[in-house]
Write a structure and sequence with these properties.
2 helices, P-loop_NTPase, CR006_AAA, single chain, about 100 residues, alpha+beta, AAA family ATPase, three-stranded antiparallel sheet
Length: about 100
């Protein structure tokens, strides 16, 4: 489990200060205004080994992490690949439609 996430010198996070999120729980919800760094947190969790994240770190328990980030990358990978059928609402106007 991830205990803390530390971010510095990436996107909206200043190089002069390290921002630490934690202590974290097994499941965490990150929300905020546009431009506040939510996507940066998700991108770091998904791609920690990228050079852009060299000033960022995780404080984690030993063991394998199963990290799932629901962001734009997740949506594109899982819902825009053509294998996921669309969701629709059955109503009077489209009752005769067939899949």
């Amino acid at each position: 489990m991830i205990r803390n996430v530390s971010l510095s010198n990436i996107s909206s996070y200043s190089p002069a200060t390290t921002v630490v999120f934690g202590p974290l729980k097994r499941i965490n919800l990150v929300y905020g205004l546009n431009g506040s760094g939510k996507s940066t947190i998700g991108n770091f969790l998904q791609s920690r080994d990228l050079p852009a994240f060299r000033n960022c770190s995780l404080d984690e328990d030993s063991g394998e992490l199963d990290i799932c980030v629901y962001n734009q990358s997740f949506i594109e990978k899982n819902f825009h690949g053509g294998s996921q059928p669309g969701v629709f609402t059955l109503n009077q106007g489209n009752m005769a439609l067939r899949i």
